[in-house]
């Protein structure tokens, strides 16, 4: 946060000589400045919360699919991820979509295991 935004959002009584001239020109009532700042901060925190929730959900699907592949194909976690990633790249699909299809058994494990993980 820049000093100017901070001063606009949280006015502090100071002598005029310590406040930059450009800040002095933009005088807003304290409630208006604070309200706009809080509104923007709330909107940004909601966006961040939505992004983090989506990332967590995606990660859960991928981890479940890796575990499923480890169990079904008797491979390591790294190889399971390589299989998922390779299939995702070959079919131009998002990794989380492929993982979801593996977990819900819409995508047979044999389709993934035909891919050699060393070809990456």
UniProtKB/TrEMBL annotation:
It comes from the Bacteria. Residues 42-103 form the ANTAR domain. Pfam families: ANTAR. This is ANTAR domain-containing protein.
């Amino acid at each position: 946060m820049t000093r100017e935004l901070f001063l606009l959002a949280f006015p502090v009584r100071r002598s005029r000589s310590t406040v930059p001239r450009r800040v002095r020109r933009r005088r807003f009532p304290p409630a208006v400045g604070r309200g706009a700042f809080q509104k923007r901060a709330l909107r940004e925190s909601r966006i961040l919360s939505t992004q983090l929730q989506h990332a967590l959900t995606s990660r859960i699907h991928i981890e479940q699919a890796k575990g499923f592949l480890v169990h079904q194909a008797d491979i390591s976690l790294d190889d399971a991820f390589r299989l998922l990633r390779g299939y995702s790249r070959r079919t131009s699909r998002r990794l989380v979509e492929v993982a979801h299809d593996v977990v819900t058994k819409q995508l047979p494990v044999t389709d993934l295991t035909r891919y050699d993980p060393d070809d990456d």
